[in-house]
Amino acid sequence: MSNELVRSCRITLILSCCILIFLIFLWFVTPAKSLIAGFIIGGLISFYNVFHLAYRVMLAGKLVASGSQKLVGLKTLSRIAVVGFGIVLACRFPEWIDYRSLVLALPLGIIVMIVSASFYYIKKST
């Protein structure tokens, strides 16, 4: 794995952990527990999908670089199933998990990945 990819993954992991720790702290402090629980579940699903996709792309890239004829998929159906599981969980327990905040938190992993890539390119250009 190249240095820039390792650095970007490390920054993404640190930012995602900081966001989740902050959300868990808010869950303990605020009375809007279902709203914050939706953000926590949505963030966990989002970060799982981002890191799973990064791993699968890295695996496929290694196989292509080695010249292997073996096909490796990106497991899109499993990532969609995880999102579906989160939505079913929110619909099953609406008093514990707010579905609106869960849906709002789903693009959080992509946003964190874009921010971490921006950090790399800003540092590279200066």
Give an overview of the whole structure.
By secondary structure, the protein is mostly helical. The chain has five helices and no strands. The chain has helices at residues 3-29, 33-66, 76-92, 99-105, 108-125. α1 (3-29) packs across α5 (108-125). The longest helix is centred in the middle third of the chain and has 34 residues, at 33-66. The mean pLDDT is 91. It is found in: Cell membrane. The chain crosses the membrane at residues 12-29, 35-55, 76-97, 103-122.
Entry keywords:
mainly alpha, 0% strand, flat, ATP_synth_I, membrane, ATP_synth_I_Bacilli, ATP synthase subunit I
In short:
Its main location: membrane. The protein has 126 residues and is mainly α. It has helices at residues 3-29, 33-66, 76-92, 99-105, 108-125.
